[in-house]
């Protein structure tokens, strides 16, 4: 992967905290939801409820599509990421603790708020490993994308 494009991907991952993730429902239709995420390099982490539809979908088929972007008031400033990836449940407790620490660090505004920490028995952590990343950058021209295989 080209160093400049990897730097751009990491900048976009750092600049955002939410992503839309599409999983596959049992009937084959995609289901898109928004989740908070953290990342280590190109590996993303998110959590969801163990009994959620998203977790059930991923238990059947770990393929996902993801978008990361935000609303721009100028069309030619649009920049974001689209990914084809695999999202696999984190089973290792040490990795789950690291993922939780990364997620907490992404939301410093939550410090000091009266939030009950999620019960580990109720949540599932997922590791997202991109296979293909499309880097959308309109500053390089309308609908400009760079396609990167990971």
- Please name the CATH architecture: Roll
In CATH terms, what is the fold-level topology?
A: Pnp Oxidase, Chain A
Mean pLDDT: 91
Low-confidence stretches: none
- Through-space gap between termini: 7 Å
For the record, the CATH class is Mainly Beta
Q: Tell me the count of domains.
A: 1
Radius of gyration: 16 Å
* Helix and strand sequence: HEEEEHEEHEE
Share of helical residues: 10-25%
**Oligomeric state of shown chains:** single chain
Task: Give the count of helical stretches.
Answer: 3
Number of DSSP-assigned strands: 8
**In what range is the share of β-strand residues?**
35-45%
Characterise the protein shown here.
The chain is 23% helix and 41% strand. With 150 residues, the protein is α+β, with helices and mostly antiparallel strands. The protein has one domain (3-149): Electron Transport, Fmn-binding Protein, Chain A (Pnp Oxidase, Chain A, Roll), CATH 2.30.110.10. The termini are close together.
């Amino acid at each position: 992967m080209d160093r400049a494009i990897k730097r751009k991907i990491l900048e976009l991952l750092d600049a955002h905290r939410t992503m839309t993730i599409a999983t596959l429902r049992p009937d084959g239709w995609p289901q898109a939801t928004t989740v908070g995420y953290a990342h280590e390099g190109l590996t993303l982490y998110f959590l969801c409820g163990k009994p959620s539809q998203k977790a059930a979908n991923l238990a059947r088929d770990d393929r996902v599509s993801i978008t990361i972007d935000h609303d721009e008031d100028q069309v030619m400033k649009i920049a974001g990421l689209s990914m084809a990836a695999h999202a696999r449940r984190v089973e290792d407790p040490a990795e789950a603790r690291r993922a939780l620490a990364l997620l907490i660090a992404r939301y410093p505004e939550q410090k000091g708020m009266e939030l009950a920490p999620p019960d580990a028995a109720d949540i599932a952590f997922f590791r997202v490993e991109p296979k293909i990343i499309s880097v959308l950058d309109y500053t390089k021209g309308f609908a400009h994308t760079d396609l990167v295989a990971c």
